[in-house]
Specification:
Elements (H helix, E strand, L loop, with lengths): L4 H24 L61 H9 L4 E3 L5 E3 L2 H16 L3 H14 L4 H13 L3 H14 L6 H18 L7 H17 L3 H14 L4 H13 L3 H14 L6 H15 L2
Antiparallel strand pairs: 1-2
Amino acid sequence: MVLSGSRLLPGLVFLVFLLQACFTYAQENQDNQPHITPRDVRGPTPRPTPKPKPENEPLENAPIQENQQPAFPQPQAQGESSSKDSQIDFDRARRTLEEPPPTSKDSDNTFRSYDPHRADKDVEVGTYYLKLKNYRAALDRFNDALRYKPKDAEATFGLASTQEKLDLLDQAYQNYQEYLKILPSGPRAKECQEAMKRILPHLDMRKPRADQQPQHVIEHDIDVGETYLSMNNFAAARDRFEEALRLAPENSRACFRLAQSYQGLRLIEPARLYYQKYLDLDPHGLYAADAKKAIADITATVGK
């Protein structure tokens, strides 16, 4: 069914009027409409504006008057804790941590710390040198071992053996005795006892009797020195002849034997000096021809 234009027009006019009335009513009643609550978003906290300092305000480094609290906390002095009742000595604690381990002072004013591992290594190397007959190197190693580990039995025995090879019989005898004090029933005890029996006659021969006159002591030193010289033990012979010359500087026989000892040690210049001294003391002596020949041989070897 189709409506005619005369019936449709009044309806449209009424609809338009109704819409206009509703719109006018909504504009006049906005406060009655519900509002949307915005999200709570925090903005940056505003910083307070600093107050200007008065001209007479004290500076940070100004001295604090009596009964006046410092404006800023003062740094604590070193060694003080936050509590006044307890104090910590940091310097003392640091010194304790930095202190070296205990050391022992040797007779030559050198300090050696106790080191048994180092001592064992020195004994091993010293024994190796002893087998190679490098007695001076062995002597140094055994002495070092006893500095790092005193009263070590193996080092003491090795030192005694080396000293015996170097004809340092007094020291060797004492160290053999020292080993027996450390280990009376040790593995080297029998060797020490045999060595002491072997050394003792030589020690008796070297010691002059207490009732002997100085001239007898000189003759004794020369006789013992000549015994060593016949065994090609030039170092021990030199010691005896030097002792004789200390007591009798004009003894021509001691001069000639000392020159031979120096020559055996390949100390050429001292040897030539004492050969010449012998000729000055006894130009026609028993050994004059031998002394002249030795001087000529040395001069031909090293020059004038």
